[in-house]
Specification:
single chain, 488 residues, alpha/beta, Rossmann fold, 7-stranded parallel sheet, 4-stranded antiparallel sheet, 19 strands, hydrolase, serine protease, protease, serine-type endopeptidase activity
Length: 488
C-alpha cells in the first residue's frame, strides 16, 4: 500500500467539470507575463469556503492559456477555449496557492468530494532520470564509446529512404538545451522556459541556477536535455548526426536544476510547469513530443489522479505523437507519463541488443531503443549518456521520420498508428525470454517500410484491389546491405 507523501507545497491543481469554470480567472501566462493579478476567489461559494477553511487565504489562476488568443486583453476567459481544450480538460485546470499547508490533506479530500470538481492533486515535483555526463568541455576524442546506436536501429538506411521533413517538428520537454552548442546551432528552433519552482516543495533538494523566472530562453543547466537534443538533431561534427534527419526541434525547459547524490545535477520539475510547457509546445504545432522524465506510481497516494492526464488527452486529440522514457528503476512498475494510454513507452537496450538492467519494465512498455553509452551533446562539449532518457529520443526521432514519410504521401499518422508500426517492425531481442520490455528493439528502416506497406494496403483496399502481397513486414536487412531493399 502506498503511503501518503508529506505535503511540502502550497500549490494544488484542481480540474473542474465542464461548464463550471468561472470566466474571471486569469491565465497563468498573463499573471507572469503581463502582471495580471491572480484571482482571490473562484466561485464565491463552496469552493471558496473550503479553500479558506482549510488553507486560509488563497490565490487562483487557470494553468493553461487558450490556443487562440484574444489580443485586446491578457485575461483568459472560458469563451476563448475551443472544444478540444474543454473536452480534454486543459481549459478547466486551475492552479491554486493556499497560505496554510498543514490541513492540505483534508482540503484535497474535501475538494475531491464536490460534484463540480473532476480531479484534484498536489502540484508535486518529478525528476529526470539520472545520466552519467562527462566533464564539461570534453572534446569528441574524449568520448571513448563507439557510435553503435545508429547501426543497431538501421538508421543510415532509414535516412537514405526518408531524410526527414523540416516542417515536421519534434518538441523536447526537458531541461532545455545548450544554447549556442556547435552541434545544435541552426538545428534548434526558438524555444522557451516554463520553470517556476518553489524551493520548499522539492523534498530537500538544493535548487541551483535559474528556477523562478519563466522566459523565452531554454538554457540547459543540467545536460540532460542537451543530450536528448543531440540524439535528435545533432549536426554530426563530433558525434553522429541526429536521428531525426532534417526534422526540426523546438525545446521547452520544463525541468530546473538541482543537486542530486554526489552533487551531480539532475532535472526537477513541478507538474504545472511541465504541463504548461507541453500545452504551449502542442499549440505551436509540433508533431512529436519526447518526454524523458517521470513520476513512479509508487510515489503517489493510491487515491491520487495520475499526473499529466489532461495534457496527454489534449496532445492526442491534436494528433501529436507522444514518446516517453519508461524509467530507470529496473523494476516492473509504472512511471508517468510513460504509462498513460496513447504514450509510446520506451525502454533501453545495450550494444548487444539485450535489455539494460536499469530499464523499467511493464506491460505498457512498447519497445526498447539504444540507451547505454550513447555519444551525444553535453552542456559544453560531449558526454556519454546512459538511461531510458536517451533511448526515448531515438524512438521519437523515428516517429518524426514516419510523420515525414506520411506527410510526403499525404497520409495521416496518429500516436497509436506510430506505436503500432514501431511495435510491428521491431527487431527481436538478442536473447530469449525477455519480459516486460515490449516487442523488441527499434528498427528505423523496417518501421518506414511498415508505414509504406500500411499506406499501400489502405489505398489498395479503397480501390478494391485487395491487399498487396508484401503487406507482411519483416525487419530491415543489416545496415551494410543495399539500400535498394528498402523499396522492395
Amino acid at each position: 500500500m502506498n503511503n501518503r507523501p508529506p505535503v511540502r507545497t502550497n500549490r494544488l491543481l484542481v480540474t473542474l467539470k465542464l461548464g463550471e469554470v468561472p470566466e474571471h480567472l486569469p491565465g497563468l501566462r498573463a499573471v507572469h507575463g503581463y502582471g495580471t493579478p491572480m484571482a482571490e476567489h473562484v466561485d464565491r461559494g463552496v469552493i471558496d469556503r473550503l479553500l479558506r477553511h482549510h488553507g486560509g487565504a488563497f490565490r487562483a489562476a487557470r494553468l493553461h492559456s487558450a490556443r487562440t488568443r484574444r489580443i485586446e486583453r491578457a485575461v483568459a476567459g472560458a469563451r476563448r477555449f475551443d472544444d478540444v481544450e474543454q473536452l480534454s480538460g486543459v481549459a478547466r485546470v486551475l492552479r491554486i496557492e493556499v497560505r496554510d499547508i498543514l490541513r492540505m490533506p483534508a482540503l484535497l479530500q474535501a475538494l475531491a468530494e464536490l460534484p463540480m470538481v473532476d480531479r484534484v492533486s498536489l502540484d508535486h515535483v518529478c525528476r529526470a532520470p539520472f545520466s552519467q555526463p562527462l566533464a564539461a568541455g570534453a572534446p569528441p576524442d574524449a568520448v571513448s564509446n563507439a557510435p553503435w546506436a545508429g547501426d543497431a536501429i538501421h538508421l543510415a538506411q532509414a535516412l537514405a529512404f526518408e531524410p526527414g521533413d523540416p516542417a515536421i517538428v519534434v518538441g523536447l520537454a526537458d531541461t532545455g538545451v545548450a544554447v549556442g552548442h556547435a552541434e545544435l546551432d541552426q538545428r534548434v528552433r526558438a524555444g522557451f522556459d516554463s520553470v517556476d519552482l518553489d524551493p520548499a516543495a522539492v523534498g530537500g533538494l538544493q535548487l541551483v541556477g535559474d528556477y523562478r523566472r519563466r522566459g523565452e530562453r531554454p538554457q540547459d543547466e543540467v545536460g540532460h536535455g542537451s543530450g536528448c537534443a543531440g540524439i535528435l538533431v545533432a549536426r554530426g561534427r563530433g558525434i553522429p548526426g541526429g536521428a531525426a534527419g532534417a526534422c526540426g526541434l523546438t525545446p521547452v525547459r520544463v525541468l530546473g536544476a538541482a543537486l542530486g547524490p554526489g552533487d551531480k545535477r539532475i532535472g526537477v520539475g513541478a507538474l504545472d510547469n511541465i504541463d504548461a510547457g507541453m500545452k504551449r509546445l502542442i499549440d505551436l504545432g509540433v508533431k512529436v513530443i519526447n518526454m524523458s522524465f517521470g513520476t513512479p506510481e509508487s510515489a503517489l497516494p493510491e487515491e491520487a489522479p495520475r499526473p499529466h492526464e489532461e495534457i496527454i488527452r489534449y496532445a492526442l486529440s491534436r494528433g501529436v505523437i507522444l514518446v516517453a522514457a519508461s524509467g530507470n528503476s529496473g523494476l516492473t512498475e509504472k512511471y508517468y507519463p510513460a504509462a498513460h494510454e496513447g504514450v509510446i513507452a520506451v525502454g533501453a537496450v545495450d550494444r548487444h541488443l539485450q535489455p539494460a538492467p536499469f530499464s523499467t519494465r511493464g506491460d505498457h512498455v512498447a519497445l526498447c531503443a539504444p540507451g547505454r553509452d550513447i555519444r551525444t551533446c553535453g552542456l559544453d562539449g560531449y558526454q556519454t549518456a546512459t538511461g531510458t532518457s536517451f533511448a526515448s529520443p531515438f524512438a521519437a526521432a523515428v516517429c518524426a521520420l514516419l510523420a515525414s514519410r506520411a506527410a510526403r504521401r499525404a497520409w495521416p499518422l496518429s500516436s497509436e498508428d506510430a506505436r503500432q508500426i514501431l511495435v510491428q517492425s521491431a527487431r527481436p531481442f538478442a536473447g530469449a525470454g525477455v519480459q516486460g520490455c515490449g516487442r523488441g528493439v527499434l528498427d528505423a528502416a523496417a518501421a518506414l517500410r511498415a508505414l509504406d506497406a500500411r499506406i499501400d494496403a489502405a489505398i489498395a483496399e479503397e480501390e478494391g484491389e485487395g491487399l498487396p502481397q508484401e503487406y507482411d513486414v519483416v525487419p530491415a536487412p543489416p545496415a551494410h546491405d543495399s539500400l535498394a531493399s528498402l523499396a522492395a
